[in-house]
Design goal:
This protein has helices spanning 13-28, 44-50, 53-65, 70-77, 81-93, and strands at 5-10, 38-41, 97-102, 105-110, 114-118. It has 121 residues and is of the alpha/beta class. It has a three-stranded parallel beta sheet with strand order 2-1-5. A two-stranded antiparallel sheet has the order 3-4. Helix 4 crosses helix 5. The protein is globular, with a radius of gyration of 17 Å.
Length: 121
């Protein structure tokens, strides 16, 4: 099974736009472009606001424990359901988790095996 990675970058909106234009130009010319999963933030501070310690813990626990419901997951993490639900929702909005439906319940699923973080010095 292939390991699926996502890269998280700290880059300005301008840098992100340039990267988009480069890919767009290649695709417009019919050139092959390797798909890349990239999530970017303008600052380290913003990244830390979104990727909190608890949300990173959730990502790891979803991968390891494969919870069947968010409620059961909250109990496993010993955190209030509402907090876990909100964190799972945010991670899903960011594309780091996906929600599957099984037997009428919502099941968080990991989309990635590894997160690579690139921070310019």
């Amino acid at each position: 099974m292939k390991v699926k990675n996502i890269t998280i970058k700290i880059e300005s909106l301008e840098e992100s736009g340039k990267r988009f234009v480069e890919v767009y130009n290649k695709v417009s010319k019919g050139e092959k472009v390797e798909p890349q999963d990239i999530l970017s933030f303008e600052t380290e501070e913003r990244m830390h606001q979104i990727l909190t310690k608890e949300r990173l813990r959730i990502l790891k626990a979803v991968r390891e424990k494969e919870p069947k419901t968010i409620y059961a997951f909250a109990k496993l993490l010993k955190r209030p359901y509402a907090n876990v639900f909100n964190d799972v929702k945010k991670l899903t909005e960011m594309g780091l988790l996906e929600l599957g439906k099984e037997n009428g319940s919502v099941q968080p699923k990991a989309k990635y095996d590894r997160i690579n973080i690139t921070i310019p010095l």
